[in-house]
């Protein structure tokens, strides 16, 4: 399913839109609509300052990741981007181990090495007889670090705030973020 979305995004980016910053605006409009529907259907829930601030930070990060994603997709083959996305669980695992103090098991190390080596080799390009990583490798690496940090941030509010409320605030925030991009 994700691959279909990636290829659809690539088609839109290459055939319909010339500026990669235009696509997050459409995502923001959809997020705003979904957020408002969930907000109203949840009974207009209000959050405390701390929880609302954390969710707002996640929305800002989400908007930044969309811009990074579309930029990388515009510069690289979609199949390579899909492979690079496979490093997200690894980044999440590393961040969960460091920040949340979750244990790292030996059974996770071999898959870790396979995924990272595959992403590394796909990202190599020959330039003047030198091997170097492509720009999209660094963009998707940044995307994955930011996306993994979303999971860590949401962990701090998910225990006290219902999922529907988080979704409604994120959707409304995405809509407001899209206005800022526009």
Task: Write out key terms for the chains shown.
mainly alpha; 8 helices; two-stranded antiparallel sheet; single chain; 182 residues; 2 strands
SSE order: HHHHHHEEHH
Total strands: 2
Which geometry do the CA atoms define? flat
User: Uncertain regions: pLDDT < 50 for 5+ in a row?
Assistant: none
Proportion of β residues?
A: under 5%
Count of helical regions: 8
Helicity, in percent? over 70%
Mind sketching the topology for me?
Layout: H1 2-16, H2 23-41, H3 49-75, H4 78-85, H5 88-99, H6 109-123, E1 124-127, E2 130-133, H7 135-158, H8 163-181
Antiparallel strand pairs: 1-2
Helix pairs in contact: 1-4, 2-8, 3-7, 3-8, 5-7
Please characterize this protein's 3D structure:
By secondary structure, the protein is mostly helical. Helix content is 76%, strand content 4%. The protein is built from eight helices and two strands. The protein has helices at residues 2-16, 23-41, 49-75, 78-85, 88-99, 109-123, 135-158, 163-181; strands at 124-127, 130-133. A two-stranded antiparallel sheet has the order 1-2. Strand 1 (124-127) and strand 2 (130-133) form a beta hairpin. Helix 3 runs antiparallel to helix 7. The longest helix is centred in the middle third of the chain and has 27 residues, at 49-75. The protein is flat and about 55 Å long. 26% of the residues are buried. The mean pLDDT is 88.
Brief summary:
This protein has about 180 residues and is mainly α. The chain is about 75% helix and about 5% strand.
């Amino acid at each position: 399913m994700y691959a279909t979305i990636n290829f659809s995004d690539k088609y839109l980016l290459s055939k319909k839109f010339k500026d990669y910053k235009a696509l997050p605006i459409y995502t923001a409009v959809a997020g705003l609509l979904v957020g408002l529907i969930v907000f109203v259907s949840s009974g207009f829930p209000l959050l405390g300052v701390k929880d609302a601030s954390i969710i707002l930070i996640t929305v800002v990060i989400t908007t930044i990741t969309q811009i990074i994603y579309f930029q990388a997709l515009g510069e690289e083959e979609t199949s390579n981007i899909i492979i690079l996305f496979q490093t997200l669980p690894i980044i999440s695992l590393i961040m969960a181990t460091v920040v949340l103090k979750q244990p790292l098991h030996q059974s996770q190390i071999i898959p870790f090495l396979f995924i990272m080596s595959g992403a590394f080799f796909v990202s190599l390009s020959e330039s003047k007889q030198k091997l170097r990583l492509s720009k999209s490798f660094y963009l998707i690496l940044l995307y994955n670090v930011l996306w993994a940090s979303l999971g860590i941030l949401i962990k701090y509010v998910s225990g006290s705030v219902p999922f529907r409320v988080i979704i409604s605030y994120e959707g409304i925030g995405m809509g407001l973020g899209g206005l800022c991009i526009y």
